[in-house]
Amino acid sequence: AVLTSLAGLVGQALDRARLYDAKDHLAHRLQSALLPHTLPRIPGLKVAARYLPAARGLGIGGDFYDLIRLDAHTAGAAIGDVQGHNVDAAALMGQVRTAVHAHATVGASPADVLARTNRLLTDLDPGLFTSCVYVHLDLAARRACLATAGHPPPLLRHADGRTELLRVPPGLLLGIEPDTVYPALDVPLPHGSVLALYTDGLVEAPGVDLEDATAALAGLLEHADPTDLDAMADTLIRHAPTPGDDIALLLICPGG
User: Fold this and answer.
1) What's the average model confidence in pLDDT over 169-189?
2) Quick one: which of 119, 86, 83, 84 has its CA closest to 100?
3) What is the pLDDT of residue 245?
4) What is the secondary structure of 46-92 as a DSSP string?
5) Exposed/middle/buried for 252, CB within 10 Å: 0-12, 13-18, 19+?
6) What average pLDDT does range 133-144 have in this prediction?
7) How far is residue 92's CA from residue 66's CA, in Å, rounded to a whole number?
8) DSSP for the chain?
9) Can you give the pLDDT at residue 176?
10) What DSSP string runs through 149-164?
11) Are 112 and 99 spatial neighbours (Cβ–Cβ below 8 Å)?
12) What backbone phi and psi angles, to 5 degrees, belong to 164?
């Protein structure tokens, strides 16, 4: 009887392990399908992107990034973070990324892209909130217009290496209030500058001061080689806090 009971417990444990492996495989396939496999080649623009999965839960989350070709002289860029580290977060991430992409391609301003996406989320009422930054890039005028929904502020590295935190007027997280207004900030983006968009996993960790971590990230960006965006991205990811959260990073440099 003891051996029979033991065999039953072992069988249940194996079944649970197989179920977890199946869920883990499904979750990673879902997230892989929802993130861009490649970014579009846009004349006049160099980009580098990185994604690092969370170290807890199923190892997936709701972080996303996107680069959108709009016309011969303009492009859009987005980065965001859906609350949670599970299949629901990954699925909502796909909906948010699709909504942002769709609104951007019809010519909506950054403020309108976020406002329309926010109304969609409040209608869907998924029970999860999302932070996001959307950037409209005017490659001819070398300017960027940004709006944010509760997301960590972007960093701008100037051609001389000086790096600043962009104080984009704050807006509420997506999915809270349907009539939220998202003010925008317009900044020069000259040749040789680098715009860094990132999610909070790159600067937030238990026991780490957020301002200190952001300042440290700015210092790494300042001293990195702007001619090699891939090496710059690897450096920033390598110096992230111990990964408990997933991390997304998108570097944008005009003049490519």
Assistant:
1) 96
2) 119
3) 74
4) EEEEEEE--SSTTS--EEEEEEEE-SSSEEEEEEEEES-SSHHHHHH
5) buried
6) 97
7) 15
8) -HHHHHHHHHHHHHHHHHHHHHHHHHHHHHHHHHS-SSPPP-TTEEEEEEEE--SSTTS--EEEEEEEE-SSSEEEEEEEEES-SSHHHHHHHHHHHHHHHHHHHTT--HHHHHHHHHHHHHHH--S--EEEEEEEEETTTTEEEEEEES-PPPEEE-TTS-EEE--PPP-PPBTS-TT----EEEEE--TT-EEEEE-GGGT--TT--HHHHHHHHHHHHHHS-TT-HHHHHHHHHHTSPS-SS-EEEEEEEET-
9) 94
10) ES-PPPEEE-TTS-EE
11) no
12) -130, 150
Q: Where are the domains of the chain?
A: 35-254
CA dihedral 209, 66, 93, 58 (to 10 degrees): -60
Q: Give the tokens for residue 137.
A: 């890039």
Per-residue model confidence as pLDDT tens digits over 45-77: 999 999 987 755 555 668 899 999 999 999 999
User: What's the token pair of residue 170?
Assistant: 């704050």
- The pTM score is 0.85
* Contacts with 119 (C-beta within 8 Å, 6 or more apart), sequence order: 178
Check whether 166 has a pLDDT greater than 70: yes
pLDDT digits (tens, 9 = 90+) for 90-133: 888 889 999 999 999 999 999 999 999 999 999 988 788 999 99
Rounded to whole angstroms, the Cα distance separating 99 from 180 reads 17
pLDDT for residue 232 is more than 60: yes
Fold entry, domain 35-254: Phosphatase 2c; domain 1 (3.60.40)
List, in order, residues 6 or more apart from 50 with CB less than 8 Å away: 233, 234, 236, 237, 247, 248, 249
Is the pLDDT at 26 greater than 60? The verdict is no
